Amino acid sequence: MKDVLDELAAAQRAMGKGSLPAGEAYTIEVRRRYDAQIDDLWDALTSPERLRRWLRPVSGDLRLGGKFELDGGEHGEILQCEAPRLLKVSWLYGPDADAWPGTSEVEVRLAPGPTGDTEFELIHAAVLEEPLFPTYGPGAGGVGWDLALLALARLLADGETTDHIEKSPEGREFVRRSAAAWGQAHLAAGGDPEHVASAVEATTKFYAPEPQS
Fold it and tell me: What residue ranges define each of the domains in the chain, with the CATH number in brackets?
């Protein structure tokens, strides 16, 4: 369990404000360091063979201006691609989302660290009217990214993958603490304490529901 929770503690989380083509947005922001060369981390973020091992299988035209789709339904367009430092994509979910372009974007920035490691920053912006926020708060996307970045850390460290860890006892604890951490980020951004508490509870139940006896 310790290594899983260490990965959770390795990241700094924040909730902020931003803007998108469709209007005013909120952001969830994750910053951490990976013990990997920048070119290796960039490859893990952009190679279809490696992407499927920590995120999801991906298809499409994987170049600037091209469109991509993950097998979970997430899809979008590659808006910026400046190897090996910047990747920015639109990030939509479900076929109905195409009717509202410019409502969600993910940006990843990499910078070489002082000892051969890499500084990693992910910013996911979504319009304020995004329907999941009232129920789940920033944890709606934040916990999902925490789980994905845990899998990325394991892939970079030893080539292993992490499948459905949230179904294990250690994974459920990871989800619980991740949801709580995003709750703290929400509070720090001025969130109403009652809304934050209900959002943390709803997010935890969504990602790690109680096992049925």
Answer: 2-207 (3.30.530.20)
